[in-house]
């Protein structure tokens, strides 16, 4: 870290997507905690680590992680407080389960389930002042990148949430830049390309929140692996990783998490 630059504690989040039953989730947790224990105590003071399982595994994973510093995240929530929304989960449910983070705006929700910026902003508004931090995912498609529209697209996705929530999420928001063409494809943005987008996000956060925008963590996601995490996180505005594919292997996930300690 350069002298005078703001300290942002790295955050690494595993997005399990629709994988792992509750039983498999607790096996994974046991193996991950054993790997992290080998590192000895103290790592958690320099790093935030969270896992986002499918909703049915949240409670079992909570039990398996209890007493550890690995935090619980959810993959989704509905903007309404409660009511007739078959198949959805509410903020109160996530709070009761002890979730500390929730993904909103993931590209799979945007593209496979038709969630638009307005709906994602409504989810963000629901989270204002709660104990659950949104991890707002933004990112461009391949066509948008090739048409030179990356910064524009990402800025619009971010603005939809910031305009709806004002200063309400200043101390809660986490942003994740995930180029859609890099998710699950094995292709990763180059560290310089990722930094250029993160710098633009940072600029927007500072314009909106003032100086506290320098404290907001901006994660990178899209085919993050043990072999590329170091060079990505060496960039000044990459504050952690949202990990998909590599989350399925406790060894790979632990090694990504521990590599990010070098950032702190
Ligand atoms: P990936 O997924 O690491 O498999 O590319 C990232 C994500 O969807 O968050």
Describe the structure.
The structure is a single chain. The protein has 264 residues and is an alpha/beta fold. 39% of the residues lie in helices and 14% in strands. The protein has 10 helices and 8 strands. Strands 1-2-3-4-5-6-7-8 form an 8-stranded parallel beta barrel, surrounded by 5 helices. Strand 6 (174-177), helix 8 and strand 7 form a beta-alpha-beta unit. Helix 1 (22-38) packs parallel to helix 2 (58-65), helix 1 (22-38) packs across helix 10 (250-259) and helix 7 (150-165) runs parallel beside helix 8 (191-209). The N and C termini lie close together (7 Å). The structure holds 2-phosphoglycolic acid. 2-phosphoglycolic acid is lined by residues 15, 178, 183-184, 221-224, 242-245.
């Amino acid at each position: 870290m350069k002298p005078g630059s703001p300290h942002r504690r790295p955050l690494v989040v595993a997005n399990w997507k629709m994988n792992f039953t509750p039983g498999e989730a607790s096996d994974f947790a046991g193996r991950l905690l054993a790997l992290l224990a080998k590192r000895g105590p103290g790592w958690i003071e320099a790093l935030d680590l969270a896992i986002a399982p499918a909703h049915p595994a949240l409670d079992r994973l909570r039990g398996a992680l209890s007493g550890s510093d690995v935090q619980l995240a959810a993959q989704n929530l509905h903007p309404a407080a409660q009511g007739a929304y078959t198949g959805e989960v509410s903020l109160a449910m996530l709070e009761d389960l002890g979730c500390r983070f929730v993904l909103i705006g993931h590209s799979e929700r945007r593209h496979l389930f038709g969630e638009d910026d307005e709906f994602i902003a409504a989810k963000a508004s629901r989270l204002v002042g709660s104990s659950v931090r949104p991890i707002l995912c933004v990112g461009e498609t391949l066509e948008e990148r090739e048409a030179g529209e990356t910064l524009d697209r990402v800025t619009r996705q971010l603005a939809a949430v910031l305009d709806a929530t004002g200063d309400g999420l200043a101390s809660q928001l986490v942003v994740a830049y995930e180029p859609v063409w890099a998710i699950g494809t094995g292709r990763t943005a180059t560290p310089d390309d990722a930094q250029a987008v993160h710098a633009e996000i940072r600029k927007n956060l500072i314009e909106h929140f003032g100086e506290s925008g320098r404290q907001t963590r901006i994660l990178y996601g899209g085919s993050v692996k043990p072999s590329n995490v170091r060079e990505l996180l060496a960039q000044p505005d990459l504050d952690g990783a949202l990990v998909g594919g590599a989350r399925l292997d406790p060894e790979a996930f632990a090694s990504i998490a521990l590599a990010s300690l070098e950032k702190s």
